Every structure is written in C-alpha cells, then in structure tokens.
Amino acid sequence: SEHFAAKARRVADNGIQIALFNRLFFTSLTLIASVATAIVYGVGGHLSIDGSLTLGTLLALTTLLTRLYGPLTALSSVRVDVMTALVSFERVFEVLDLQPSIKDEPGATPIRKAPPRIAFQNVHFGYPAAADVSLASLEAVAKPETYTGGEILKGLSFDVGPGEMVALVGPSGAGKTTITSLLPRLYDVTAGSIEVDGRDLRSITLESLRELVGVVTQDAHLFHDSIEANLRYAQPDATQEEIVDACKGAQIWDLVLSLPDGLDTVVGDRGHRLSGGEKQRIAIARLLL
C-alpha cells in the first residue's frame, strides 16, 4: 500500500505540475493578446482622433490582430506535440531497427510439405538474457538481472514419426512450452540439433518451416464473424469441400450442421457464443485448413 501510494503521489504531482505550466502558458498568451489589443486601440484611437489614421484602418488592424492569435496559440503547442511524437517515434524505430536473432542461414532451402519425421538429438537450451533480446531503452530503466535461469533442456532426445501423436507431460517449468517454441525456430538450440526429415532446422528456410507448423493455443481466438469467415482466415481461397473436410477432421462438422445458419453462424466476439471445446475444434479446423 505504501509503495503504491508513493507511485500514485508522483503521478498526481506530475499531473498537477503539467496543469500548472499549461495554465501559466495559456494565461501568458492571453495576457499578451489582451495587452496588444489595448495598445492598438489606445494608440490607434489617439491617432484616429488626430486624423492621422482612419477609423476603418484602426478596425482593420484590430481585426488582423485577433486573426493572429489563433495561429500563434497553435504554434506555441507545436513544440510539445513534436517532442511527444519524437519520443514515440524513437521507440517505434527502435523496434523496427531491431534485428531478429533468428534468421535464415546462408544456403537454407525450403522443405517439402508432406508430414515429416521430427528428431530431437541431445538438445540443450537456455533462454537468452533480457539484454540480448530486449530493447535498449527498456533495459536502461530495468533493474539488473540477479537470476539466471541456466539450461532448461539438458540432453533431450526423442523421435516423432509421421502420423504419431505425442504428449509432453511434466510439471511447470519442465520445458514443455520451450520444446514447442524450438520446433518452429522461435529460438535456436544452445547445443545439439533438431532435425526434420533428416535435415537440421537451421538448414531450412523459416517461411517453409513455419508453413509446416500449426499451433492451437489453450484460449483459441475467434473473430466476431461467421464460422466460415473464421476458417477462411487460414486460407481465403479454400474450396467448400476443403472447408468441410477440415471441419470433419476437427470433429466439428456435426455441430455446424446442427446450427440453423450452418457455416454462416456468427460466433460472437472472441467466440463467446460457443463453448471452450467448440472454439478449440474450430481453431483446429482452421489449422488443418
């Protein structure tokens, strides 16, 4: 509570300070405009009485003066807008300029799309430090790391043949998710190798490799659209027969047939009109498609 109160107090103080500066700045501009108008009317009125200046010229001058305040006020806030934008652009371009740590190796070639054989051979892996993969501006304000995770996987070896179904079972932190991240090369192994059809992952182009790998997460995301539109997101030019085959493969076709609108049934925002299992089966159908 004390920590939160201190942070909240700092935010409130900063907000008050900004509001005060804005109000002072606005008051100054208004004061300058009012004084300038008073001077023009005072001096111009005196000259008009003396006949040195016509009344029409005086009114024209005051009108022009009021037309000048708007652009001046707008220009005064430009610096704040530019500085705010520069901070945002700096972060955006830092992200755009960040080179991916995983890229195609020289001489990498595509792989065929038939169901492959997968082999993990004496795989060792440890996650890179935040300083190696994060943005410099983020690390500049972060506390130095005092914990190093070390190796997550140590000498892991197993084979998966085409058509096999394999379950990875273990406690939290055992490396199950890590294994699924290594297969599409979201990370590279520290030692050992992962082979697909006898080829090291690093000799395969990333695009062709990731076309082979499909993922259905625990919380499958569906768009607020029809079932068919959610399926066609995976393959916009899919035929009706391919869509039906994918639904049958995911064991969702009987449910689709039972719905009054069939494939045109709108699933709702994030698929809220379907149960969790139905959402996952539609996601599996999308993956198969």
Q: How are the SSEs ordered, and which strands pair?
A:
Blueprint: H1 2-50, H2 55-76, H3 78-97, E1 118-125, H4 130-133, H5 136-141, E2 153-160, H6 176-182, E3 191-196, E4 199-200, H7 206-212, H8 227-232, H9 240-249, H10 253-258, H11 276-288
Antiparallel strand pairs: 1-2, 1-3, 3-4
Helix pairs in contact: 1-2, 9-11
Describe this structure in words.
By secondary structure, the chain is α+β, with helices and mostly antiparallel strands. The chain contains eleven helices and four strands, in the order αααβααβαββααααα. Strands 2-1-3-4 form a four-stranded antiparallel beta sheet, with helices on one face. A hairpin with a 2-residue loop joins β3 (191-196) and β4. It starts with a helix and ends with a helix. The mean pLDDT is 85.
Q: Which properties best describe this structure?
A:
289 residues; 4 strands; alpha+beta; 52% helix; single chain; 4-stranded antiparallel β-sheet
* Portion in beta strands: 5-15%
Low-confidence stretches: none
Number of helices: 11
- Give the helix/strand class: alpha+beta
Kindly state the mean pLDDT as a whole number?
85
Form type: elongated
What's the alpha carbon Rg, rounded to whole Å? 33 Å
Number of strands: 4
Biggest sheet: strand arrangement: 2-1-3-4
End-to-end Cα distance, whole Å, is 51 Å
Share of helical residues:
40-55%
Largest sheet: 4 strands, antiparallel
What is the succession of H and E elements? HHHEHHEHEEHHHHH
Question: In a nutshell, what does this entry contain?
Answer:
The protein has 289 residues and is α+β, with helices and mostly antiparallel strands. Helices cover 52% and strands 8% of the residues.
